[in-house]
Amino acid sequence: MMSQVKEKEKTPIPKSVDEIEQYMKENVGLGKSFDLGVRKLKILHRDVQFYYVNGLCDTSFIIQITEQLVEINDHEEDSSKLFDIVQNRLVHQSVTPIKSIDELVDEVLSGLIVVVVDGVDTGLVVDVRSYPGRTPIEPDTEKVIRGSMDAGWFGSHFSSCGFAFVMGVCAAKERYLIQHVLLEPFEPEIDDRRHKQRNQLREN
To answer: Structural domain tally of the chain?
Structure first.
């Protein structure tokens, strides 16, 4: 009984991809968070989109899926069956249909991609996850407090324990650990300030 109540509370996926995109912008941070993205395709004169999180997805899988979807234009003509065609062309062992926008958000923030077709209120979840890693390099500064060199993956995500992270990996790790719509990683402005300072020094 409780499961049925929870199912009723879920918001269905809008049939318009524009409405889905607007929802992602207003509620999840699309366009604000640098690691949250959408790929837009035009297939058989209809809009097809898929949402993803950089750093949590395997790019090679995404490229392969994109190529398969684009090739539909060369081999198919009936746009009324586009959703079934897209589902059939997703060459992956894990493809799951979903009906609610809540599931769409949860799956995307978990590192999967969700494919939506304009005019259809169902999304297709494809598991293309790639878990973020780390590089065991000692920092140039603060060598005394660099921490344990064998710190675990989960134990080191908030600390400066001596592992060199790039921003994308840090953001991906936080996304994986804190799968919440209010988490909006943004690109720091420190790099821009450093570039400006370097340019000023060069000019002087």
So the answer is: 1
Please enumerate in sequence order all residues whose Cβ is within 8 A of that of 109, keeping only pairs 6 or more positions apart, or say none: 28, 53, 175, 179, 180, 181
Q: Which two tokens stand for residue 105?
A: 């958000």
Amino acid identity for residue 30 in this structure: L
**Is the model more confident about 9 or about 27?**
27
Tokens of 52: 């993803």
Write the CB contacts of 86 (distance below 8 Å, at least 6 apart in sequence): 43, 48, 69, 72, 115, 117, 124
User: For residue range 48-100, what is the model confidence (pLDDT) as tens digits?
Assistant: 999 998 878 888 888 999 999 999 999 999 999 999 999 999 987 889 999 99
Counting other chains too, the contacts that 7-13 makes at CB distance below 8 Å and 24 or more residues apart are 10/99, 10/100, 10/101, 10/102, 10/103, 11/100, 11/101, 11/102, 12/99, 12/100, 12/101, 12/121, 13/98, 13/99, 13/100, 13/101, 13/104, 13/116, 13/121, 13/122, 13/123
Is the residue at 196 inside a domain? no
Q: What is the pLDDT of residues 92-146, one digit of tens each?
A: 788 999 999 999 999 998 889 999 999 999 999 999 887 655 555 555 555 555 5
| C-alpha span between 86 and 82 (Å, rounded) | 6
Quick check: is 195 in a domain?
A: no
User: From CA 16, how far away is CA 198, in angstroms rounded?
Assistant: 47
Task: Report how far residue 7's alpha carbon sits from residue 100's, in angstroms, rounded to the nearest whole number.
Answer: 9
Is residue 66 in some structural domain?
yes
